[in-house]
Amino acid sequence: MFNYYEGQNSWIASGADFNITSRISLDLAGTNNVALAGGLRDSDSQTSGLQFFVPEVWGASIMDYMEKSLVFGALANDQSALVAGGGDRIHLPKHTELSASDTYGSGVETLIDSNLAFAKSTDTEDEYTLDINQAIHSAISITDVAKVQASFDVMNIYTSKLGYALAKKVDQYLALKLFESIAFNYANGTDDGTQAGNTIEIAASHDSTDIVAAGVSNMLEAIYTNDSNASDYVMVLTPIVYASLFKLDAFAKYEGTGLAGDSNPLISGFAGRLGGVDVIVSNNFMHYGAGSTSSAQSASPVGNFSSNSVVDESEKLLGYLIHKDAMHIAYSPGMKARVQSDYHLASLSTRFVADSVYGCLVTGSTTSGNKRVFALVSPAS
Predict the structure, then answer these.
(1) CB–CB of 215/297 below 8 Å?
(2) N or C: which end of the chain has fewer CB within 10 A?
(3) DSSP 3-state of 146
């Protein structure tokens, strides 16, 4: 933690990345002219209450709220340990499926030399690269810090807001990477996602956002055709599609599921699993929209999912079916939710910044057995 008053800290004074442009020349009395280290550390009776402002404690609370707020981020595999010693790029092997052959032939237990074939893995293996190249921050100026510190509830409000701001930004970035992986012409150009074409129709008609029983059947067929199990995947749905689950008898009526008591979704509000697949909801879906090259958050995302010849981007994205190994995230050492602060005498406030440095990767392809992400859609037309 770097807590020096503004006149001494060149990093704070420069206003790097945080739009802090004002500079002050401080002429403090000897008892106040001290370096800050987690608080004012000052015995002056007028400011001694401020020494309880400890950024390390706030940082832990911010990370707690950040982790609680993550949806897509919570599903990603955290690879931060691989860069614990430094570095900004992680190489992940891209494995190809190996095949097996009969060792013995013609019903005779004799080894057939010609059946022994060795594939050179160097000829076919590739890699994914995860670059840690995203930097985000959330900042707030808090007045009357002594009063704030006297109430944990007030501190809790600020930490939850800062943590949620970081988590939402991380979640939206991951959601955008999912969209770019699964859509054709994803940025209204010629680029197609590496998994574009992996689609599952879960609604009955082009304009519908309601999951139907036939859609559940389509999902299960796609999972097992991909040589996977239902437990390998998670469904992440938009709010309106998630709500449609309760129109299905199997969810809305305990008679249809054989459940009773607290297991009844109408009583508990817990949707649980659909066809053996865990179901969750997020409002952080991202898309580029029809005719736009700028990404945006949307509760009703659209794009091209069935063919790269579609140009009107009118196909509705209802959610994703995500394999547990599809998404990866890594944070720079000590930068998952770093906290820094300085006391600003001119405004009698403490300026407080939480930031994070991270990178994300979505893996998978359109090859059967390696389909890690599916777009859950309504029919194209």
Answers:
(1) no
(2) C
(3) helix
